[in-house]
Amino acid sequence: YQRRVRGRQFLEAREWEGVAPLAWYREPGSLPMTLFGLMTKAALRATEYHGVMTREWGMNSTLAGCILFFLPLIGLIVAFIVGVCSVHFALGKAKPAELVGMQRAKPRQPSGGASGGASGGASGGASASGGASSSGGVSGGEEEKKDR
User: What's the pTM?
Assistant: First the structure.
């Protein structure tokens, strides 16, 4: 009863105006306090369910505790997987080349200007410009096969 009287005096004397404001995370409507309130409600509800499971249903206390622990955990995991899959199917599979801003490497064209793998075969890997081929004597056709 003393507490009620003190509370009324606190309000009537407008002492609340002199109290420093709370930090954003300690305000009652903030996200951390809302989550804390929801977790407190869930814990109280789990305690009630535990009592029902043990007293009324005659279930073992340890089994009831395991069910109340693992059932929500499995539910959260399933919800997470469903959420990830729905986002994946809604947005499509991301293409790494688009994400990084790079293009895929295209297969090298034969350096001799002739068809297929005829360039570089007879000259021991030298290109048409006279320099040594970077493939070490592998003809253009074989080089193309290696890139795939």
Answer: 0.45
Q: State the Cα–Cα distance between residues 125 and 137, nearest whole angstrom.
A: 4
Cα separation, 50 vs 52, whole angstroms? 5
Residue type, 60: N
pLDDT range class, residue 5, cuts 50, 70, 90: low
pLDDT of res. 73: 96
Q: What's the whole-number mean pLDDT along residues 5-31?
A: 85
> What does 39-87 look like in DSSP terms, one character per residue?
HHHHHHHHHHHHHIIIIIS---HHHHHHHHHHHHHHHHHHHHHHHHHHH
Number of Cβ within a 10 Å radius of residue 65:
15
Q: What are 103's two structure tokens?
A: 């293009």
Q: Which amino acid is residue 46, in one-letter code?
A: A
